[in-house]
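Q: I'm teaching a short session on how sequence maps to structure, and I want students to see two examples side by side rather than one. Could you give me a first protein with its sequence written out and its structure tokens following it? Keep the formatting plain so it prints cleanly on a handout.
A: Of course. Example one:
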Amino acid sequence: MSLKNSFKRVKVAFRSLPAAFTGWPNRSLRLRLMLWYGGLMLLGLTCFGLLVLFLASSAINSNSKNAVNGATQLATVSLQQTLLSQSPYWPLRLQLKALDAYSTPGIIIEAFDAQNNILYSSDINSPLILNNSTIQTVQQTGKAVWYNTSVDGERALVEVTGIYAPDLQGQQGKGPFIGVLLVAKSLHDANETLLLLQSYLLLTGILMLILFLGCGWAIVGYALRPLAALVKTASSIAGAIAYGKRVEHLHQRVQRPRGKDEMAQVVDAFNNMLSSIESATTVQRRFIADASHELRAPLTTIQGNLAFLIRYIEDIPPSERHIMLADAHGETLRLANLVDELLLLARADANIGQVSQTTLPAPIVELDSVLLKLVRQMRRRLEIEGSAPKIVIGGIEPVRVRGDEESLRRIMIILLDNAIKYTRAEGENDEGRVIVAIERSGNEAVLRVSDTGIGIESKDLPHIFERFYRADLARSREGTGLGLAIAQTLVEQLNGRITAESQPGQGSTFRVWLDLA
């Protein structure tokens, strides 16, 4: 019945485990790590303690057994010397003077005849009880019998061996079975030693566990200190943005810990993310400022001209009215062009990174044909306008790529327009040249547009693809600073890349790299 109750208790304990761990994920990481390592330490200490107790118990039991066995051999030799050579072999009064003189404390020796009558006892105050079945077992097997019993309320180890009479030739222990010798040793000292060892192991384990948990709490806190600084920095930035403070709080960084461990990598990744966010925020703010400026300029002109016309339309000569309307119309076209470019950028940004829902591949476009057609149109426009420079075809290889033909055409138009705009000589005899070429490079098609124009300074070259960015040398030309940004966005949308090389006063070279179909 007690075993059944024990199983019920274990079952109830296991059912209560989920409830005990319900709030576990809500605990702090520091506490959870400390408890996990503490649990592993406790498991290790328990296994070590059990192993020590097992080895110590085995050694003590072995020593006790050796002591009993040694006493048995000494008693057997002393007993054989007192036996008679004829039946009933037992003397009238059995005395073992050697055992009485050299008796070992804690060991009891008794002799019984075959009828279970006690003939000798080294301690009459603690008699041992021997049953007939034990005598029969020893007689039948001829081997010693070991068992544990209780003597005066204490555990004792007992060995029972057979006693044999001398044979006809007088050889000791070769005759018939005449009784048994019983040797018992108290296990009180052994149990006391094991109990003391258990106490020492338990006390040492508790002290080591407390010390380990304290050191673990300190070490885990030190290891997680960068994480706490990371949380503090992120919360500070989030709070500053939530309360509408200036975004300059993004310049905060988490101090990097020493070494190259995982925590240092997390801090580096977080700081790099903050740098990217700060850079993107700065670009966005500048974009908003530049877009506002670009939109305000034509709107101011349109608003001023129309307001002046409304107020003084009767007093203004028709020619001046025509000029003011033409200026307003030009600014309107400029404003519409700027809005179109911004919408194009917005659509391209929305398409980058999106996975197409259709399984059909993009259409194949003959890039060389599109470029040659566009060059013919650009040459015709330049002839009509009567402006420089000349467009020269450097080399065209037939290549095919996958993508949207309109996007590819717009990329080419942006690069050619930029090259033409910044290559015009304006009064110089040298009209300048724009060189276009298409070539293969491994598994990629390379569209190259080179010019002999004003070039780009090295300090401006890394920023030319930023929106509304205009280099110092380019501010004298008309433009919004969105063309190259649009080209880069469209190229990335086609899974390609665009690069630029330039020398001030010598010209620039732009390359567009696209995968071959």
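Q: Perfect. Now a second example for contrast.
A: Example two:
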Amino acid sequence: MFRIRQIDVTATGREIVRERLVEQPRLTIGRAAENDLHLPDLALDPIHAEVVDAGAGRIAIKALSPLAFTLDGEGTRAASLSARDGGELGFGGTRITLSEEDGVPVLTLRAVVGLEHTDQAAGFSVASLLPGRRRMGWIAALLILGFLLALPIATHMLRGPPPGASVIGDDLWSPGKLSLGHHKLEGKCETCHVKGFVAVRGETCRSCHKETHDHAAPNLLADARGQVPLGRAMLNRVSAAFNRPGPGACSDCHVQHEGPDKTPPVRQAFCADCHKGLTDNLPATTLGNAGDFGTLHPQFKASVVTNADARSRNRLSLDAHPREDNGLTFPHRLHLSPLGGAARMAVSLGGGSGYGKALTCANCHRASDDGVRFKPIEMERDCGACHSLAYDKIGSTVRTLHHGDVAQALADLSTYRGAMPLTRRQRPGAFSDGGIYHASFSAPPVPMTAFAKNGVCGTCHTAEMRGGRLAVRRVTLPGRFMGHGWFDHRAHRQSKCSDCHAASGSSVSSDLLLPGIKTCRTCHAGEDVSDRKMVPSGCALCHSYHPADAPLQRNAKTRIVREGG
């Protein structure tokens, strides 16, 4: 039986004593965890020695490994001593004092501080052969400065002109591989880092990204940030002293050397720093405050056509229920009704013509190749199946009006002399006695009849007199209504058109069938949202920091104005 007493010392010098009674005649000592006296010391073997109660108050200690232990400071491999007389055993950095209390041998274990300077420790480590810690620290610091700073600087200053000349150790300065967008510049540091020890400047970025412009004028960007806190202002001054560009630099957002992955979208907080208090910092702005799509975002503003003839457009809030003047006379309700004449015509045309049942949005609105937007409406492709422009037949030749060319249409109609059945297809509206769609231009004069309200042209267009000549109002159909935001129809293909666009109830073409922010908020919330049913939506989901000003482009064939992008 042995009494084991473990003494530990805290950082403040207070001793902590733990005792336990081991009722067995033999104990093993070593650094393996299964030993009775576990001493985690690399100077010991896994099972280093054993302690045996030899009876009559004597204790026998024997080494079980090639390494010895110490007894009262002298090395030995075996010893026998009286527990009453006591003694001190040394095993690596631990001292075991032998004593006796109430006839029970007591082994008191205490770690020795500063053992690394003793002769015994020197036999198990190289610490005694190395310089002191302070000296080692200075040596390491000088090596780092030499190899990582002095050597690259020297080779940079002494090398010849690139390419070909390299800088020794410059790879150690790189924080990582270039991001996916610039991976082709890997190893061509001078492309961006034009000057040594000078951060990448904005003008260097713009030398390649020529089409990228500022988010706003520099003075507006500075005012929009508002009062800069004192701590931030001091950091900006320190950064400028070390050649780092100030706030608003390209590198603030476009952090490179992040590995060959796509750059993550900018966090919402970056935009909110300016935009959540924009009206206070920029009182003259026409923009509203925006900090979170779910809680702080203004109603959408659409670029609405207010005069089709002048092709003028104004950005108007959807809260004002703006009306659109696109130059057309077109009722969505008539075409989408499942029981109206348009539905009957679609059924009669059949599946071979791409119809066969009541009209849907997809019959006229055809997705672009990338699925993001929709192609311009073309009369011949999207309307001609029901609204024929044929007006005469000579032999086997069917004469057709030239859509979009008013002067040519007037010239063609001026030579027409009577009504003649052309086809057995039916359409909503006028029918002949035999149910045959035909052009009937008798009196008044043929051109005026064609451009009348229910005529071939007047069904969709509005005729007017300009300078004593018959003309048609221009048609202006925007390709984008919200030029300051981005919307991807492809990402919403699981939804029906009617979920967002109330087209089936629209009877006039002036209805602006755009959903407001309330509709979008049924699915989209801010960037940090706890509801799993909602879609987290940060600013970068719909907005770009460098929006391109898309000019209006005219499609000469259809005379429809589209907005690029």
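Q: What should students look for in example two?
A: Point them to this: Residues 115-122, 419-427, 429-444, 550-565 have pLDDT under 50 and may be disordered. Also worth mentioning: The longest strand covers residues 2-9.
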